[in-house]
């Protein structure tokens, strides 16, 4: 194809970024949202590498890269409660649901979830039960999952469920149709334990000088320059809150590298998040 290696490599990188940006644009437009009102959370080993270009393509103005971004999934497991769920599926008009059978099923499922959680070490008084339902307008194949009341359900609750669904639908798609009846796909119950008491304490970090955080510099490819440009490289672990910098730059850590482009500012906040303003 007579393409230089550098141009080919950058083309692959751009294609990946554009694919992600296109997906984000579609979701934003479907919901009528302004990208300037959102922040991009960059996690994973490769997330901080792509985040800046992705945010600029979509029109996002802020990026947050948390500490240990490459371990975000593992860290997340330590910050969420025990949770088990069950689902019963049967597609039918909401008004045709047999309330006696439904209440019996929900009660049995709830009892089972409590047994599972207590067996996992969660105390009975700490268990929360949450009920949800997958509902759509009749004829649609893509339901929304909405909360439903706890306790014994009656016909009066179906009016409340219908109103909740239409509110969620209008929020997601702009408006809802009052005249169209609803159909239910599934009934869901979630058993949830207490929130873990996790403290990410960074108070033991030592004060550092900006000069110590600056590791050096190297040349990286910048499409704005149509070639390579020398940029500063910072050691993320030696950056401290309050220090402000301008892009372009690289911020290195053990599990990833955050690539920061031109016409931007970045700093570390008190929680050790790397904040990038575009």
Number of helices: 6
Gyration radius (Cα, Å) is 25 Å
Report strand order across the widest sheet.
1-2-13-12-9
Low-confidence stretches: none
Total of domains? 2
Average pLDDT value? Answer: 91
Strand content: 25-35%
- Helix and strand sequence: HEHEHEHEEHEHEEEEEEE
Quickly give the structural class.
alpha+beta
Biggest sheet character:
5 strands, mixed
**Percent helix among the residues?**
25-40%
Distance between the termini: 35 Å
The general outline is: elongated
Would you report the number of β strands?
13
Please tell me about this protein's structure.
It is a single chain. 32% of the residues lie in helices and 29% in strands. By secondary structure, the protein is α+β, with helices and mostly antiparallel strands. The protein folds into two domains: 5-71 and 202-277, no CATH class; 83-192, no CATH class. The strands form three sheets. The chain has a five-stranded mixed β-sheet, covered by helices on one side. Strands 3-6-4-5 form a four-stranded antiparallel β-sheet. Helix 1 packs across helix 2. The radius of gyration is 25 Å and the shape is elongated. The two termini are 35 Å apart.
In short:
The chain has helices spanning 5-30, 47-58, 72-77, 99-119, 155-173, 210-213, and strands at 39-41, 62-65, 83-93, 128-137, 144-147, 182-192, 214-222, 227-235, 244-246, 249-252, 257-260, 265-268, 274-277. The chain is an alpha+beta fold and 278 residues long. A hairpin with a 4-residue loop joins β7 and β8.
């Amino acid at each position: 194809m007579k393409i230089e290696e550098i141009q080919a490599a950058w083309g692959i990188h751009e294609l990946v970024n554009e694919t992600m940006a296109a997906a984000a644009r579609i979701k934003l437009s479907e919901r009528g949202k302004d990208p300037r009102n959102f922040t991009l959370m960059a996690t994973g080993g490769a997330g901080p590498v792509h985040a800046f270009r992705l945010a600029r393509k979509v029109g996002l103005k802020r990026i947050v890269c948390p500490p240990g971004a490459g371990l975000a999934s593992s860290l997340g497991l330590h910050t969420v409660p025990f949770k088990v769920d069950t689902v019963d599926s049967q597609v039918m008009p909401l008004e045709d649901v047999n309330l006696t059978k439904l209440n019996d099923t929900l009660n049995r499922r709830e009892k089972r979830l409590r047994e599972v959680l207590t067996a996992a070490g969660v105390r009975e008084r700490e268990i929360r039960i949450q009920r949800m339902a997958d509902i759509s307008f009749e004829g649609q194949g893509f339901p929304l999952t909405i909360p439903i009341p706890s306790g014994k359900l009656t016909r009066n609750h179906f009016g409340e469920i219908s109103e909740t669904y239409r509110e969620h639908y209008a929020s997601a798609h702009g408006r809802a149709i009052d005249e169209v009846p609803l159909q239910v796909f599934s009934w869901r119950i979630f058993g949830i334990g207490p929130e873990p008491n996790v403290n990410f304490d960074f108070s033991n970090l030592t004060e550092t000088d900006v000069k110590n955080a600056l590791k050096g510099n190297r040349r990286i490819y910048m499409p704005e320059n149509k070639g390579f440009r020398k940029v500063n490289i910072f050691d993320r672990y030696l950056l401290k809150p309050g220090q402000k910098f301008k892009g372009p730059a690289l911020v290195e850590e053990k599990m990833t590298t955050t690539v920061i482009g031109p016409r931007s500012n970045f700093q570390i906040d008190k929680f050790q998040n790397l904040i990038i303003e575009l």
